[in-house]
Amino acid sequence: MVTMGWPQRLLCCLFLSLSLSALTARAATRRYEWDISYQPPGPIIRATQGDTVVVAVKNSLLTENVAIHWHGIRQIGTPWADGTEGVTQCPILPGDTFTYTFVVDRPGTYMYHAHYGMQRSAGLNGMIVVAAAKGGRDAEPFEYDGEHAVLLNDWWHKSTYEQAAGLASVPLVWVGEPQALLINGRGRFVNCSTAAAGSCNATHPECATPVFAVVPGKTYRFRIASVTSLSALNFEIEGHPMTVVEADGHYVKPFVVKNLNIYSGETYSVLIKADQDPKRNYWLASNVVGRKPGTPTGTAILSYYGSGRSPRSPPPTTPPAGPAWNDTTYRFKQSVATVAHPAHAVPPPPRADRTILLLNTQNKIDGHIKWALNNVSFTLPHTPYLVAMKRGLLGAFDQRPPPETYDHRSYDIHAVQKNPNATTSDALYRLRFGSVVDVVLQNANMLAANNSETHPWHLHGHDFWVLGQGIGRFDPAVHPAAYNLKDPILKNTVAVHPYGWTALRFRADNPGVWAFHCHIEAHFFMGMGIVFEEGIERVGQLPPEIMGCGATKGHH
């Protein structure tokens, strides 16, 4: 294998400047100015709970629009800063600058990434690390001596334009398995004979294998985020058991794993003890699970200070291969083992005011292969929902309510649909402000027999309680009785396993319009998503910078 360089199609954030000015004794404003051009990955945003983050984004791409989503940040009071093109804003046009301003109200590990078309898979992404406020109730219930940030990604040689064109074609041209798995923006190129000139030169400094240094005897926190476009991953630090302590910004009841399953859009913190032989290096390994792998292991190196060896010396072992890719039971057990820390559990409301059952299927529309919820494939409107609803532009999207259930009693989730035809819609679900909403996601067979996939679902603007998960058909008359109402974990992204279901609950108490979608880039592009509206009348005056497209042309 030869370490891989980078084709020039990659998008990223170039960090230009950072200044910090105290507003009060407790909060600060973190100012960033970014020029979007070509070079991976984006900088880590570091802040403290309660800080205001200000990011001025200039789009210097000549032919592409941009929008950036601050994944896991709830945007309380600033729904226009969520960064979701078509939902909360018009995209940032080439040459334009847009300033995102928001408060980070919770400590934890988060991420940011492009939310325009399929741009996320082109490398516009990075991490957000929010420290707990000193002396606050969210103080970390664990101790460590140092920390590292690990951003996991997958990588294709085809451009996002080529991928999107294939997905929209008849017949479908699937994106295929990624050519590489990246750790902090670096990976391995297997076949250099097919590489562009200069992209396979291991002497490039940006091609160096990532190294994570530790001091013998110390305990380290590894903040891990997956911004993959397709791949579910299994992450391992060779020879070092990991204690899981945080998920999506919430503390979990600690449990120990040899390797961690992480799905696109999820973040975790794990603790390791640097207690192995310090005279050798160890692998960090990332492997595809949930799909038959066609991608080599992504690797980095754990190196002990004072070992006398080069930090970049390859370990004497082969990289860990992880568990069997199709061991759904193993991955399911790890999902249900993730519950709230006893000292930080927030019990959910005892019952829901409204329940939405969503059947996730693969369908056909005019020969195009799509994904659908309750037989409806989602499309984004030309005018962002937030703007349309605040300005009364009701003709900007379908006003008919989308379906809230399906024939769950008779639908066979293990069979290929007899009638795969579906319809498209840009309608949204309107929620009563302050109400408690249950959403149950049910996975089913795809168009091909004996095939069901894992789907990581991400909710913007909220954290939700994961009340239950199962394999098989969800029965609303049976399964809710076994919901975990004692210590369910709060998350913003959760996996729905093959032929399985996941039940979540949230309170519709954040005024705005919020996307809820599969975090696999191609699946959202193909229609696997919905949108919620709540308390739109409570949203403040919209900044004019989010306008300028659809029915708001000329209002920029």
* Number of discrete helical segments: 4
Which percent range describes the beta-strand content?
Answer: 35-45%
Task: Please bin the fraction of helical residues.
Answer: under 10%
Biggest sheet architecture: 6 strands, mixed
Q: Give start-end ranges of low-pLDDT stretches.
A: 1-26
Mean pLDDT across all residues, rounded? 91
Shape: globular
Task: Describe the model.
- With 556 residues, this protein is mainly β.
- It is built from four helices and 34 strands.
- The protein has helices spanning 160-167, 328-336, 385-390, 521-525; strands at 2-3, 12-22, 28-37, 45-48, 52-59, 68-71, 97-103, 108-114, 125-131, 146-155, 180-183, 188-189, 211-214, 219-226, 232-237, 242-247, 250-257, 259-262, 267-273, 282-289, 298-304, 354-365, 368-373, 376-378, 423-425, 429-431, 436-443, 455-459, 464-471, 490-491, 493-496, 500-507, 512-518, 529-534.
- The strands form eight sheets. A six-stranded mixed beta sheet has the order 11-10-14-19-16-17, with no helix packed on it.
- Strand 2 (12-22) and strand 3 form a beta hairpin.
- The longest helix has 9 residues, at 328-336.
- The protein starts with a strand and ends in a 22-residue tail after the last strand.
